[in-house]
UniProtKB/TrEMBL annotation, chain A:
Protein name: ABC transporter permease
Pfam families membership: BPD_transp_1 (PF00528)
SUPFAM superfamilies, per database record: MetI-like
Span of domain ABC transmembrane type-1: 77-261
GO biological process, one term: transmembrane transport
Key word Chaperone present: no
Membrane-crossing segments per the record: 27-54, 88-107, 119-141, 147-166, 187-213, 243-264
Subcellular location(s) per record: Cell membrane
Biased composition (Low complexity): 9-21
TrEMBL record, chain B:
InterPro entries named in the record: MetI-like (IPR000515), MetI-like_sf (IPR035906)
Name used for this protein in its record: ABC transporter permease subunit
Source organism: Bailinhaonella thermotolerans
Annotated family: Belongs to the binding-protein-dependent transport system permease family.
Pfam families assigned to the protein according to its UniProt record, in alphabetical order: BPD_transp_1 (PF00528)
Span of domain ABC transmembrane type-1: 63-243
Subcellular location: Cell membrane
């Protein structure tokens, strides 16, 4: 639920440089991560078997995994997953489009950008969750109150990164575009945005991560359906194994999403010309 | 060209005025909206509700509990995240082993772990402080590590050529060199610790502003709910704005 | 090869900048009336901050003159023109495109008619494939011309600074402009690379006979490359001296040891020295 220095306005350096790319270099530690996870599983198993803690505090993985598998086969799970997935997808689409547009607009009109900058920086992604009770009063307890706030959460890093990336373009690229007679849209789409791509993609990665975090957090607070809602529901019905299974699923989904975004970020920036 | 080292320019004043104007327009829009929908409390009623609440000892106790928990979470996040980030930035081996797992943990919606914390740290301060810590830890850790990694190599050579001791290198070169990213981490940790605590209180707690928001919601006291949320947002906004300005000044 | 009205004609060009200070506008370039005949090679030398890059931007149509006019091949310059190629001092090779795609880029831009205005008459629409083939061929010619053959698939990050400026040169040449404007293109390179690339530019000019304006702060480079050197003063930039370089056309770097080269060098340096000191004093706020 946060940011690396390079992505925040100010530190402004995308984590991927254009120098020789090695998409897997950062994943050299992946085996270590797996080992640590397996180790945690073993500790949990042994601890549960030895009754170091009550079973409803942390059920044994050997109970948890079959439960997770059973849940993954149930239609209820797929309804919730679909709901969360749809909220996530909509938020990402809205947020990315709005963020790109605002980032470009602020680049063209820096005065407007500087006026809004304090708000964007202060609401950077997560504090917006606090508005959720207001959103459910205004919109109702449904997917739209989640989508509206999650879209804004996605749009903010997208806006700031797009804007920062466009400001960081070497000025000579724009003089080049002018000298070879690029139109305004050619300058934007074929020179400026590709030049800002590492920042834009970093913003995309953050935006998607925030959309997931925000969506789940809001469902968890109050909702009628969704993966986050199920955790709360099962907690309140004292179904520890079911709850842990859902938490496990959410963690797995977020880990998968993070990995995909990390790899995509390493692959995309070089881009190709059409 | 740091905006804050120079005396406030006319341009800077104009931008601030513009930002204030945005807030004023937002309040006007709110006022208009409150007349269109009965669920939206009027701005004035909301501010009155805040005044009423601030005279209520139960509200003040909740405010105190939330802020204390957030403060504790933030301090813990700094104490753990700062040194861990330094270690991660300095040691290549540590980076290789831990950075994927940190990236993964960072991407998890940590709030779903709250029910896991409850039986271990209990319903009082414990669980929400730990949740606030989980929220605030990663920005400090990741920003510190990134800051250390981005220190130009020539600084290390300078330190060696001056025969600086380890302590001198840390306090005279390393910390000043990473002050920008470090402040970014601090700024994010401040507001995230608070958010983590309040989200925990939304879920289950005995006291705190998050609980007050939810009980105002369920009793239909929308003015009280909005005013409490705005108080939280204002606290987080003021702190991050202050730190953001500081950040731009040191850059 | 020169006929009246062709080449580059500067008529009383003046450029002012609005300054933030209290002194009113800064005059960057003033009263420049000069001509480069078609196919001519002229270098501009001057101290840093003398407005030579500004003058080049005006000729390129990237900046408007405050007064006066520039005509290229008889047409008054009002904006960037595809018949005028510009090469910049900064690394302007786009990092997300490989060498070939960088060189093709301006050709692809030029192919698309701007604002829906067809470049060719109605009914005459060459197939996309044919156009693409022509672009590919032209780009390859330019790549071969600057000696980048074999590097087509490389990305800029894999090339040295000198190689990247070769890419920029190929990109400019691929447009086949009749006028080539070069703004200190090799200033960021080391001395040996600069000599090599200078020789390349001169060889290519010998083949293509484009009109060249070459901005530099290096007196030797100016004399080695060009037929004529314009010496500019520190702000406001005016032309102090026009020096015809009467060295053999097939000269190479060994010419620097000849007495004639030294004489030219000394004449230009004498002119520049006081200007450079004046500029240094003003930029550093010493009492002049």
């Amino acid at each position: 639920m946060n940011v690396r220095a390079p992505d925040t306005p100010g530190a402004r350096r995308p984590s991927v440089s254009r120098a020789p790319r090695r998409p897997w270099s950062g994943l050299a530690g992946a085996p270590a991560a797996v080992v640590l996870m397996v180790l945690a599983g073993v500790v949990a198993e042994v601890g549960a078997a030895a009754a170091w803690w009550a079973p409803d505090v942390l059920p044994a993985p050997s109970d948890l995994l079959p439960a997770a598998a059973r849940i993954a086969g149930s239609p209820r799970f797929w309804q919730d997953a679909l709901r969360t997935g749809a909220e996530l997808l909509l938020s990402c689409v809205f947020g990315v489009v709005a963020g790109l547009g605002l980032g470009v607009a602020f680049w063209k009109a820096p005065g407007a950008g500087r006026v809004f900058e304090p708000y964007l920086v202060s609401f950077y992604a997560v504090p917006l969750v606090l508005f959720y009770p207001i959103a459910i009063v205004l919109i109702g307890i449904n997917q739209w109150s989640v989508v509206v706030l999650a879209s804004i959460m996605t749009a903010i890093p997208m806006t700031l990164n797009t804007w920062t990336g466009l400001r960081a373009i070497p000025p000579v690229y724009l003089r080049l575009a002018a000298s070879i007679g690029c139109s305004r849209s050619q300058t934007l789409f074929r020179v400026a945005l590709p030049a800002a791509a590492p920042y834009v993609v970093a913003g995309l990665r953050l935006g998607v991560a925030y959309a997931l975090i925000g969506t789940v957090a809001m469902e968890f607070t109050t909702a009628q359906a969704g993966l986050g809602y199920q955790v709360r529901y099962l907690y309140e019905s004292f179904d520890a194994v079911g709850m842990y299974a859902y938490i496990l699923v959410i963690v797995a989904v977020s880990v998968l999403l993070t990995a995909v975004l990390e790899i995509a970020e390493r692959l995309l920036p070089r881009g190709r010309d059409t | 060209m740091s905006p804050a080292t120079a005396p406030p320019t006319r341009d800077g004043c104009r931008v601030t005025a513009g930002s204030v104007a945005v807030a004023v327009i937002a309040v006007i829009a709110w006022e208009i909206a409150s007349h269109l929908s009965f669920v939206i409390p009027e701005p004035l009623d909301t501010f009155l509700a805040l005044g009423r609440d601030l005279g209520d000892p139960r509200f003040l106790a909740g405010l105190r509990e939330t802020l204390l928990a957030a403060l504790a979470a933030f301090v813990l996040a700094m104490l753990i995240g700062g040194p861990a980030g330094l270690g991660l930035g300095l040691s290549r081996r540590a980076r290789v082993v831990f950075s994927p797992i940190i990236t993964m943990l960072n991407g998890i919606p940590k709030i779903v772990l709250y029910p896991v914390l409850l039986p271990v740290f209990h319903l009082g301060y414990g669980s929400k402080i730990v949740m606030g810590l989980l929220f605030g830890l990663f920005p400090v850790l990741i920003n510190t590590a990134a800051g250390v990694r981005e220190i130009p190599d020539v600084y290390w050579r300078l330190a060696r050529s001056l025969r600086a001791t380890r302590w001198q290198t840390l306090t005279r070169i390393l910390l000043p060199a990473i002050r920008g990213p470090l402040l970014t981490g601090v700024r994010l940790a401040v507001s995230l610790s608070l958010v983590g605590v309040v989200l925990s209180e939304f879920f289950a707690t005995e006291r705190g502003l998050g609980r007050i928001v939810l009980s105002a919601y369920s009793s239909g006291d929308y003015a009280g709910m909005v005013s409490t949320i705005l108080l939280l947002i204002a606290i987080s906004f003021a702190l991050s704005l202050f730190l953001w300005r500081l950040e731009r000044r040191v850059r | 090869m020169s006929s009246p009205g062709t080449g580059v004609v500067l008529d009383d060009v003046r450029v002012e900048f609005r300054s933030s200070g209290r002194d009113g506008p800064v005059v960057a370039v003033d009263g420049i009336t000069q001509e480069i005949p078609a196919g001519g090679f002229v270098s501009v030398v001057g101290p840093s901050g003398c407005g030579k890059s500004t003058l080049l931007s005006v000729i390129a149509g990237l900046r408007a003159a405050t007064s006066g006019s520039v005509r290229i091949n008889g047409r008054t310059v009002t904006g960037p023109d595809r018949d005028v190629g510009v090469m910049f001092q900064e690394d302007s090779v786009l990092p997300w495109k490989n060498v070939t795609d960088n060189v093709r880029f301006p050709l692809q831009i030029a192919r698309v008619p701007r604002a829906g205005r067809p470049r060719l008459g109605p009914g005459h629409r060459p197939g996309r494939a044919a156009a693409r083939r022509r672009i590919a061929q032209r780009a390859q010619e330019a790549i071969d011309l600057v000696g980048l053959g074999g590097f087509e698939r490389r990305y800029p990050a894999e090339l040295s600074g000198g190689m990247r400026q070769r890419v920029a040169l190929a990109r400019t040449l691929a447009m086949r402009p009749s006028v080539l404007l070069m703004d200190e293109p090799f200033a960021a390179l080391d001395q040996q690379t600069r000599l090599l690339l200078g020789a390349e530019v001169r060889r290519i000019w010998g083949e293509t006979h484009q009109t060249v304006l070459f901005v530099t702060h290096d007196i030797s480079e100016a004399i080695l490359l060009s037929q004529q050197v314009w010496v500019m003063s520190y702000r406001p930039g005016t032309i102090l001296d026009v020096v015809d370089v009467d060295l053999p056309a097939d000269r190479d770097a060994s010419v620097v040891s000849t007495p004639r080269f030294n004489a030219l060098h000394n004449r230009i340096w004498e002119r520049l020295r006081t200007e450079a000191m004046r500029g240094f004093a003003q930029e550093n706020r010493f009492p002049a």
